[in-house]
Amino acid sequence: MRExxxxxxxxxxxxxxxxxxxxxxxxxxxxxxxxFLRLLPVLAWLLLAAVAFVTLAPIGFRPxxxxxxxLERFATFGLLGFxxxxxxxxxxxxxxxxxxxxxxxxxxxxxxAHGRHGRLLDLGVKIAGGVIGVGAGRLVRLAxxxxxx
Length: 149
Fold this sequence. Notes:
Helix content: 55-70%
Order of helices and strands: EEEHHHH
Number of strands: 3
Number of domains: 2
Radius of gyration: 20 Å
């Protein structure tokens, strides 16, 4: 018995109901207030794939927000850096490398995509957004009481 309940594999019976629980294995636990943090790596990589598609697909597939393209680029890579920083708080240098290399690769690959163009200004905006996003993600992680180390 633990915390007034009886454990049954992944379930623990407490006061008339069952609660999902995985003990010291470090796996997901419905009781954890930060369960969503375990899903962030998947979200980060899916976001990178989505950015790659939108960046390299024909211009007709590019979503239009009504904001300036530079603001869109900055915000997109800011979000990318932010999510990666939350997902991998102990890998800041690797995250920065991934974000910067992605920006460089996408701009270079746009030179080969029909109807697309790669520009140094666009690259600078993407890198700036990504770096600021990584910094913001680290600050949020620290504010959550989960040290970035």
